[in-house]
Amino acid sequence: MDFDKHIEDLLQRYWLGETSLEEEAQLRAFFADGEVPERLRRSKEWFTYVEGLQQESLGEDFDARLLSRVKMPVVKARRVTMSARFFPLLKAVAVVAIVIGLGGVVQRSFFGSVPEVAVSDTIGRQISAPSVALSGEVPDVAMEKQKMDSLKKGMEKPLESINEH
To answer: Which of 7, 12, 13, 111 could tie 18 with a disulfide, CB 3.0–4.6 Å?
Structure first.
């Protein structure tokens, strides 16, 4: 009776997950015997089921059978040259060069017919354009010069008055 009480305590600890490997081996040995009390019959079924699962194995030739059913893809290694690595970068540079080139062509085509705007032919020359929006009217050069002179005179007077004080 004492042994049955010990087995019941071990079973309670087993279901709570608190048993050691040695204690679980004791339970398996107990349930492997033929005679088990009626109240422990369900536990015997569990331990015989688990024991049967542990005895099943995949076999020595499992890996070979599995690999024979699976078709392995053939992977071919290829060398990547430096030019192949930089090819996407070269594509981007080409696109930028084309956009910049087309920008110059479009600018010449839009402003080529306007006489007031002189578009440069080479890099480094500046575009000369009137100071007002392009309306087709040519400003009077004498009137512009008079306005600039009056602005210069207006700037000199305050400086003289400041120096006098």
So the answer is: 13
